[in-house]
Design a protein that fits this description.
205 residues, alpha/beta, Rossmann fold, 5 strands, 14% strand
Length: 205
């Protein structure tokens, strides 16, 4: 029994390492294709300011009719953020919403889902850092399965293979994100099992 348990640990460790390696390689995109036109854009705060400036650029390029910046710090005023982003006043007033209810990625998903349903949006461009994109997209898909999400990742230094393969800090950052991604995938699986069980219970005898 002890040897079986040891082999199980070894296999799990190998699976984790292989999964992490694939995850780290997959999130790196040297060329990011422009997203198709959508009804709106959502940019998630955290990480780099480039997430937000990229969302603004897409709005200015008419890739969406409206922009949600989700997870804005409650102590930051609208005017302060717009000034940092060098956002045109008319564009900010007509087409930019600042969400302040989200404290994490799960909160971003809930905030975005409420906003999308309020405006009846069914196609959104999602802007966040490259290594954060898989988990963000998964969270948003769970929160609003009726909405089609077009990912637009912002490239970061952390996903440079030369960096994370040689720097423990960079590898740890991506590794932590990979663990969080596995958690949401596990949650997805549990939700799917629960839905299947409910469907089975409602079948006619």
């Amino acid at each position: 029994m002890r040897s079986i348990g040891l082999w199980a640990i070894v296999i799990a460790a190998i699976a984790f390492i292989v999964g992490f390696w694939n995850f780290a390689n997959d999130v790196r995109q040297d060329v990011v294709e422009e997203p198709p036109p959508a009804e709106a854009i959502v940019a998630l705060t955290g990480g780099s300011l480039e997430r937000l400036s990229t969302g603004v650029r897409l709005l200015e390029q008419h890739k969406g009719q409206r922009l949600l910046i989700s997870g804005v710090n409650r102590i930051v005023t609208d005017a302060e953020l717009f000034e940092v982003l060098e956002l045109d006043g008319e564009l900010a007033e007509c087409c930019v919403d600042l969400g302040r209810s989200a404290d994490d990625t799960l909160g971003n998903a809930a905030e975005t889902a409420a906003w999308a349903r309020e405006h009846n949006y069914t196609r959104l461009i999602l802007v966040t850092d490259d290594y954060h994109m898989p988990r963000s997209r998964a969270e948003l898909t769970l929160a609003m399965p009726e909405v089609e999400i077009y990912p637009y990742p912002v490239q970061t230094r952390w996903t440079d293979p030369d960096l994370w393969r040689s720097d423990i800090g960079a590898a740890s950052r991506i590794g932590a994100e990979y663990v969080k991604y596995l958690v949401i995938r596990g949650r997805e699986a549990l939700i799917g099992l629960g839905s299947n069980a409910e469907d089975g219970d409602t079948e006619p005898a």
